[in-house]
Design a protein that fits this description.
About 50% of the residues are buried. The strands form two sheets. The protein has a two-stranded antiparallel ribbon. The protein has a two-stranded antiparallel ribbon with strand order 3-4. Helix 10 runs antiparallel to helix 12 and helix 12 packs antiparallel against helix 13. It folds into two domains: about 120 residues, Vanadium-containing Chloroperoxidase, domain 1, CATH 1.20.144.10; about 260 residues, Vanadium-containing Chloroperoxidase, domain 2 (Orthogonal Bundle), CATH 1.10.606. The protein is mostly helical. It is elongated. Strand 1 and strand 2 form a beta hairpin. The chain has 14 helices and four strands.
């Protein structure tokens, strides 16, 4: 399928198990990897592993018929190999190779079983025929190549000590809903992880915004907006408002761009090679975006709304403090500016925009949002099915910005800076990785 202008509305009803109509072996294994990557840690670590899986899948297919530039594996092309076996072996070996670095636990054991059961279903019983074995060999080789390439990439040291002392505007550990526990600052070390396509994590500078001046009008506006709209008491009193639904939809729901991309492509006619390239670009873009995001978060070290709003006196006469204010959604464990989820959304939407050649890619997603604890004496909000529909990719990115303000975790300006950064990174990734070989259309 050539690079086209797409206007497609796909509606997905998601209840317990994500049961989208999988188009082929590539989307099947993208879903399987999605079930396994939570074993690796936070969104940053998950994005790294998912990118490695999709690179291996892409390289394995292009070692059978080379339609796009390969990333890590450059073995001899073998057109007689089974594409399905190659995809399954590439994903399996990459996931198992990374799971070997995870401490033993029941969850790890279950993840390995998920991978092995899916692999057996994909390649069938031994002995394999010649085509299947050739595909397995190609997939194993592609996985070995990306695993070797990422050894020593800095991901073994995701966290660094945080020593900045409390002061107006300075990020500090944030309280979670079950006071007085605090969330420890995390992922400062992720800024030092080797990027996949970017030259380095600071390649696209995030300039200091007007928000960072706590005495200025931009900060005042951002502060008062999130104080009102992101207050757990306000959102809890309006549990079925659009603002509350938006805040609950994005963490774990809208933020899962692999799922959303499977929804979008499920009604199309992309083949395995096209799927493999799309999902590889998507995950390369998001992995690099989250590396770069931490670089700039820990450059500015700007405080979160919960710290700012509880602060007794920041020197700004127009930002009244509230010592018992609490965000609607738990604040993630790193500084505010620029925001991570909108950065990821900017990357995800831009990869799709570049791939399909248009912003007009409407879609709907339904997500079973988990329960939300509220300040006493308010009762927790129960789990809820929430559907969000978007007329375009830019509309989805704008929704992601709103979600972090309504959730009380971020100031709006930092979210806009995140989308901009993610967009720049994704545009670079699509322009510099996995290009069509001569004669192949985008």
């Amino acid at each position: 399928m050539s690079r086209i202008v797409v206007r497609l509305l796909v509606t997905l009803f998601f209840f317990t198990m994500p049961g989208q109509a999988a188009a082929d072996i590539v989307t099947d294994w993208n879903f399987i990897a999605e079930q396994v990557v939570p074993r690796f840690g936070g969104p940053q670590q998950q994005s790294r592993v998912q990118a490695m899986v999709q690179i291996a899948v892409h390289d394995a297919l292009n070692a059978i018929v080379q339609r796009y530039d390969r990333y890590a594996y450059f073995g001899v092309v073998n057109p007689a190999a089974s594409p399905d076996a190659a995809v399954a072996a590439a994903a399996r070996q990459t996931l198992l190779g990374q799971l070997a670095t995870v401490p033993d636990s029941a969850l790890k054991t279950a993840a390995i079983a998920t991978v092995e059961n899916a692999y057996a279903a994909s390649v069938g019983p031994v002995p394999h025929d010649a085509a299947t074995q050739a595909g397995i060999d190609a997939g194993d080789a592609a996985a070995a190549a990306i695993l070797a390439l990422r050894i020593g990439d800095g991901s073994d040291t995701p966290h660094l000590p945080y020593t900045l002392l409390p002061a107006p505007g300075v990020y500090q550990p944030t309280p979670n809903p079950e006071f007085p526990a605090a969330i420890v600052p995390s992922f400062a070390g992720w800024a030092n992880v080797t990027t996949f396509v970017l030259n380095h994590s600071s390649q696209f500078e995030v300039e200091p915004g007007a928000l960072l001046d706590v005495l200025g009008p931009a900060y005042t506006s951002n502060y008062n907006e999130v104080k009102q709209l992101g207050d757990a008491r306000v959102r809890g009193a309006l549990p079925d408002s659009e603002e509350s639904d938006i805040a609950r939809f994005w963490p774990g729901g809208g933020s899962n761009w692999n799922f959303t991309t499977r929804v979008i492509v499920s009604g199309m006619t992309l083949d395995r090679w096209e799927h493999a390239r799309l999902f590889a670009l998507l995950n390369l873009g998001q992995a690099d975006a989250l590396i770069a995001n931490q670089k700039w978060k820990y450059t500015y070290n700007f405080w979160r709304p919960v710290t700012a709003i509880r602060w007794p006196d920041d020197g700004n006469p127009d930002t009244a403090s509230d010592p018992v204010w609490r965000p609607f959604i738990v604040t993630p464990p790193y500084p505010d500016y620029p925001c991570a989820l909108p950065t990821s959304a900017g990357a995800g939407t831009e990869v799709l925009r570049q791939y399909f050649g248009t912003d007009n890619v409407p879609f709907s997603r339904t997500f079973n949002a988990p329960a939300v604890p509220l300040p006493a004496p308010m009762a927790a909000l129960p789990a809820k099915l929430i559907t969000r529909s978007f007329t375009s990719l830019s509309a989805a990115a704008a929704d992601a910005i709103n979600a972090r303000v309504y959730g009380g975790m971020h100031f709006r300006e930092g979210c806009g800076a995140g989308v901009k950064q993610g967009t720049q990174i994704a545009r670079f990734v699509v322009g510099h990785a996995l290009q069509p070989v001569k004669g192949e259309k985008k």
